[in-house]
Design brief:
Blueprint: E1 4-7, H1 13-20, H2 30-39, E2 43-50, E3 53-64, E4 67-75, H3 84-98, E5 103-109, H4 113-121, E6 125-136, E7 159-160, H5 166-173, H6 177-182, E8 185-187, E9 192-194, H7 197-205, E10 209-212, E11 215-222, E12 225-232, H8 238-251, E13 256-262, H9 265-273, E14 277-287
Parallel strand pairs: 4-5, 12-13
Antiparallel strand pairs: 1-2, 2-3, 3-4, 5-14, 6-13, 6-14, 7-10, 8-9, 10-11, 11-12
Helix pairs in contact: 1-2, 5-7
């Protein structure tokens, strides 16, 4: 029977939870986000239905008037290899184009070869290599690739930047190897879009834009995690900046420090030395 593509409904949640519970070793996040996806503005949670039952899911959202983001592509194991994933993505691409988006993006882990092949078959092209970096915070344990001693507080302290300084942060980032590797994008809630001055000004107003001689960052608490969405630093300052960020997160009483940053060699090495667990990601884009 041909699948039917339709907007997701609240009653689909249980069936989706049943076939996504083993997506990853730790489970899946889609049912945790499902209710918010249904309620989100400028968004579409799309279901593929076969014989009256949901067997596929994907979500699309407009992140700006011209940028769309796709995520949460899942297909029931019994219905894979029938181009259901492609059908879901193509429908969301058409949906985004109908709302005047000029580009649509998505991401996946670098090891996910089936997803990479699917995206490229639909006309997506690489738009940046990124690292999801995470580290548990504690004041005492030695770092795996450090010198074996206890963590010493950084010689710099990150302080909140006022909104007028957002322009300085933007200028500091422009033309750097991080800005070039990011293709001008930043990550917000695992979705990538163009960074604008208004983003940095908004972060400053909520006291989430931080500054120090070694760079700038946007970061704030999310439950017990200090989450970084943007970082501006330099090869000679990266390790000092990471220590200052760890101190900032500890002052906020965070248990973990997490960030999504462009995958450049010098930052990769600094993160690894600082004891971060690294997960390489690729962002893909398709012009509309």
């Amino acid at each position: 029977m041909e699948p039917v593509l339709r907007p997701a409904r609240p009653e689909d949640k249980a069936a989706i939870a049943a076939f996504t519970q083993d997506t990853f070793p730790w489970g899946d996040y889609v049912t945790e986000r499902f209710d918010a996806w249904l309620a989100g503005p400028d968004a579409l949670a799309l279901v593929a239905e076969v014989d009256g039952a949901p067997v596929g899911l994907a979500h699309g959202a407009l992140l700006s008037p011209t940028e769309a983001w796709l995520r949460g592509l899942r297909v029931h194991p019994d219905h894979r290899r029938h181009r259901l994933g492609a059908a879901l993505l193509e429908h969301l691409i058409d949906w985004a184009a109908g709302r005047e988006a000029r580009v649509v993006r998505l991401s996946t882990e670098e090891w996910n070869e089936p997803a990479l092949r699917l995206f490229e078959s639909l006309g997506f092209r690489p738009a940046g290599s990124w690292l999801a970096a995470e580290r548990a915070l504690a004041s005492g344990p030695p770092q795996p690739r450090g010198n074996g001693g206890r963590r010493v507080p950084a010689s710099e302290r990150l302080t909140p930047a006022p909104p007028p300084d957002a322009d300085l942060a933007m200028v500091a980032w422009a033309g750097t190897s991080l800005e070039l590797a990011a293709h001008g994008l930043f990550a917000a809630d695992w979705a990538w879009r163009r960074l604008t001055l208004a983003d940095l000004e908004a972060a400053a107003r909520r006291r989430a834009l931080w500054q120090a001689p070694s760079g700038w960052a946007v970061g704030e608490m999310d439950e017990n995690t200090f989450q970084l969405s943007w970082l501006c630093t330099y090869p000679e300052d990266a390790r000092l900046m990471l220590r200052a960020l760890a101190d900032l997160a500890l002052r906020a009483e965070a248990d973990r420090l997490e960030m999504e940053v462009p995958n450049v060699d010098w930052l990769h090495d600094a993160l690894e030395t600082a004891g971060f667990e690294l997960h390489p990601l690729r962002v893909y884009a398709r012009a509309l």
